[in-house]
Specification:
The protein is built from eleven helices and eleven strands. It is an alpha/beta fold. It has a single domain, classed as Alkaline Phosphatase, subunit A. It starts with 7 loop residues before the first strand and ends in a 27-residue tail after the last helix.
Length: 320
C-alpha cells in the first residue's frame, strides 16, 4: 500500500494553464545517464506505443467505419469488455491507466486544472519506471488537463495544449508525433486522441457527429502506425489501443456500463491473435502490461497486472 504523504510540485504545463495561456507547451527532461542503468534483456519488445482514444465506446468500432481499429482487432488480441475506474472521467481514468493503480491508491479524482487538488503528484508512472530502466519516453496529449502526469524527469519529451481547456484534434496531435519520430525514437510512446470525447459532449455519444469523430481518429491512428513503421521497422514494436471511458447522452462519469466499458486492443510484436476470453481487463492493467512488454518489473505497490494472455512467448527483443 502507498504511504499517504506525497510530495507536490508545480509543472511548466500547469503554470501555463493557470495563466490562461493558449499556446502549446513542451517538457523535455535532461538526458538520462545510462552509465548506471541498463535496459532489461528479457523483453518481448524494445518499443511500445500506447494509444488512448478519449471517450471511445467499444460498440462504436463496429457501428462506424473504422478500418484501422478493425484491422488491429482482426490481426491482434482484444477485449471489448475491459473496464475503467470510477469516476469514469478523463484525468482519473488516465492516471489509473498510466500508474497501474485505482483511484483509492493514486487519489486523483479531479478532472481539470480548476478543480485540481494538486498540480503534479509525485508517484510512479509507466513513464518514470520505464525511464529509470534506460528507456526513452515521450507523451503527446491532446488536452491541457494532463499536467499531473507530466512529472519532470519522467519524460524525455512531452507536449500538450496550453490554457485551462486547451484541446487539439487527433490529426494535429498525430502530425506532431510524426514529426517527432523523424528525429527521435522513443521506446515508450504515449499518444492521446480526443476527438470522440469532444463530439460526444457536444452532439451525443453514438450520434452522427460522434461517428465522424471516431472515423477521423481512426484515420489519424492509421497515419500514426505508418509513421511508427518508418521509425521502428516492421515487427519491431508493439501497440496497445484503449480508452479512458465510454459515454452516453452527452456525458460520462457514472457507473453506467456505457460509461465504464472500454476497448483494449494489443497488436504488433508478440501478440496472440483473437479475442481475450474469460479475463476481465482493468484500465490499471495497462501500465503493468507496458512494463512487462519492455521486460521491466512493475512496482510492488501497483494493483494492476500485465495482460500476458494477449501475447505469446518470443525470443528476447534485440537491444537498440
Amino acid at each position: 500500500m502507498r504511504a499517504a504523504a506525497r510530495l507536490v510540485t508545480l509543472s511548466l504545463t500547469a503554470l501555463a494553464g493557470l495563466s490562461g495561456c493558449a499556446g502549446p507547451h513542451y517538457l523535455t527532461s535532461r538526458p538520462l545517464d545510462l552509465s548506471a542503468v541498463k535496459a532489461p534483456t528479457a523483453s518481448i519488445t524494445r518499443n511500445v506505443i500506447l494509444v488512448s482514444i478519449d471517450g471511445l465506446r467499444p460498440d462504436a468500432i463496429a457501428k462506424f467505419v473504422t478500418p484501422t481499429l478493425q484491422r488491429l482487432m482482426r490481426e491482434g488480441s482484444y477485449s471489448l469488455s475491459a473496464r475503467t475506474i470510477m469516476p469514469s472521467s478523463t484525468l482519473p481514468s488516465h492516471t489509473s491507466m498510466l500508474s497501474g493503480e485505482p483511484p483509492e491508491q493514486h487519489h486523483v479524482t479531479w478532472n481539470n486544472v480548476v478543480t485540481a487538488e494538486q498540480d503534479v503528484v509525485e508517484f510512479s508512472t509507466v513513464f518514470s519506471v520505464a525511464r529509470a530502466h534506460g528507456y526513452r519516453t515521450a507523451a503527446f496529449f491532446s488536452k491541457a488537463k494532463f499536467s499531473p502526469l507530466q512529472r519532470p524527469g519522467s519524460l524525455d519529451y512531452s507536449q500538450a495544449p496550453g490554457g485551462w481547456w486547451g484541446k487539439w484534434a487527433s490529426a494535429r496531435t498525430v502530425s506532431d508525433v510524426t514529426a517527432h519520430l523523424k528525429t527521435e525514437k522513443p521506446n515508450l510512446l504515449f499518444v492521446h486522441l480526443s476527438d470522440p470525447d469532444s463530439a460526444g459532449h457536444s452532439s451525443g455519444w453514438m450520434s452522427a457527429a460522434y461517428g465522424r469523430a471516431v472515423q477521423a481518429t481512426d484515420s489519424a491512428l492509421s497515419d500514426l502506425l505508418a509513421a511508427a513503421e518508418q521509425t521502428y521497422g516492421a515487427g519491431n514494436y508493439s501497440v496497445l489501443v484503449t480508452a479512458d471511458h465510454g459515454g452516453h447522452g452527452n456525458g460520462h462519469g457514472t457507473k453506467d456500463p456505457l460509461d465504464v466499458t472500454i476497448p483494449w486492443i494489443a497488436w504488433g510484436r508478440g501478440v496472440n491473435a483473437g479475442a481475450i476470453a474469460d479475463l476481465t481487463i482493468n484500465t490499471f492493467d495497462t501500465a503493468p502490461t507496458v512494463l512487462w512488454l519492455l521486460g521491466v518489473e512493475k512496482p510492488e505497490a501497483w494493483d494492476g497486472v500485465p495482460v500476458m494472455k494477449a501475447f505469446r512467448a518470443l525470443e528476447p527483443a534485440a537491444a537498440d
